[in-house]
Amino acid sequence: MAALSNTRHILHANQFDVDFLGELFEQAAWMDRQLKAGKLDELAGILRRRRMFSLFFEPSTRTRFSFESAADLLGMRVRASENAGEFSSRIKGESDIDAFRVLAGYGPDVIVVRHDGTDQLPAIAADLDAAGFSVPLVNAGDGSGQHPTQALLDVYTIQAELGRLDNLNVVMVGDLANGRTARSLTYLLAKYPGNRLTFVTPPGLEMREDIKKYLSAQNVGYVDSHDLTDALSKADVVYVTRIQVERLPGELAELPETYKQVAGRYRITPRELNLLSRNARVLHPLPRVGDSAKQRVKRNGEAIEVTLMNELAPECDTDPRAAYFRQARNGLLTRMALLQWVVTGKF
Ligand code: NCD
């Protein structure tokens, strides 16, 4: 869809090519140097007085704050709705198509949106194009579909930590059926030669067929595995993900039991870190789940509370191979670079 329009929508991780990624990463590293040198005035000139709208229909901490901070640092003005599902007119029955046409009419230079529907943003972007708006839409995560800007920061982190993006053994652990970050990351890893993927998932949460078909078509090697120990011993990168309890299938009443069966099956603790090579890295898009934390899951007006299980022990945090907090900060840098490109068309 993005290819058909002249507007720089960011909808799917697969729309980026390796040359673009290289330029974006250079620019993100430049942003980092500017920030560290305290050149805030210079940065704030880059998108001065340009305007960003930010609409989040699902919860977010990192993605929202890093996008909004990136925009602030580049001099943009930001209008944000952090609970757009409840605070927008959707609650009165307005369609997203109508809402986005109205917002586009207020003249933003970019609209960042976290959507609760899977794969619906391309149609919204196409509608804006057809209606004559040239405002880019940036997908900040859509249901269990895509999370292209997370994939950018994940790959940037691998490059920054390991110095390369090819010939890597990447082990993805957790809920790969519902986690959009792993899905998007897979598309980007498939663009570099020699990468091999191992998907370690509890039964029923395997990486979905659309991604596997894509990997096969690109001749990228992948395996499904239930043997975490074996996978870790060969890993360059371990990408840990949370079980997406809110997206698990089945009846609401059975959810605590369904969750218990899949969560806690694969957990990264210092014991697992011992299996990793010295140069490996552990990534996690975050949030990780606190042990015994509770999450309320709502479906069709009913709610249930589920007791959660941790997937990445806090005791791992002091290990130099634990890169997830550095990874989270990289979200600011990559989103600064991306906003610059989306709004101006160049770096
Ligand atoms: C992820 C997301 O929202 O998909 N978080 C993020 O953006 N860093 C991961 C998750 O929710 O598990």
Secondary-structure blueprint:
Elements: H1 18-36, H2 40-44, E1 51-56, H3 62-73, E2 77-81, H4 84-87, H5 96-104, E3 110-115, H6 121-130, E4 137-142, H7 148-162, E5 169-173, H8 180-189, E6 196-200, H9 209-217, E7 221-225, H10 228-233, E8 237-240, H11 255-262, H12 270-273, E9 281-283, E10 294-299, E11 302-307, H13 324-344
Parallel strand pairs: 1-2, 1-3, 3-4, 5-6, 5-8, 6-7, 8-9
Antiparallel strand pairs: 10-11
Helix pairs in contact: 1-13, 3-13, 5-6, 7-8, 7-13
The structure holds N-carbamoyl-L-aspartate.
N-carbamoyl-L-aspartate (NCD) is lined by residues 62-63, 141, 147, 150, 179-181, 242, 285-286.
Description:
This protein is α/β, with parallel strands linked by helices. It is 38% helix and 16% strand. The chain contains 13 helices and 11 strands. The chain has helices at residues 18-36, 40-44, 62-73, 84-87, 96-104, 121-130, 148-162, 180-189, 209-217, 228-233, 255-262, 270-273, 324-344; strands at residues 51-56, 77-81, 110-115, 137-142, 169-173, 196-200, 221-225, 237-240, 281-283, 294-299, 302-307. The strands form 3 sheets. A 5-stranded parallel sheet has the order 7-6-5-8-9. A 4-stranded parallel sheet has the order 2-1-3-4. Strand 1 (51-56), helix 3 (62-73) and strand 2 (77-81) form a beta-alpha-beta unit. The radius of gyration is 20 Å and the shape is globular. The mean pLDDT is 95. The structure holds N-carbamoyl-L-aspartate (NCD). N-carbamoyl-L-aspartate binds at residues 62-63, 141, 147, 150, 179-181, 242, 285-286.
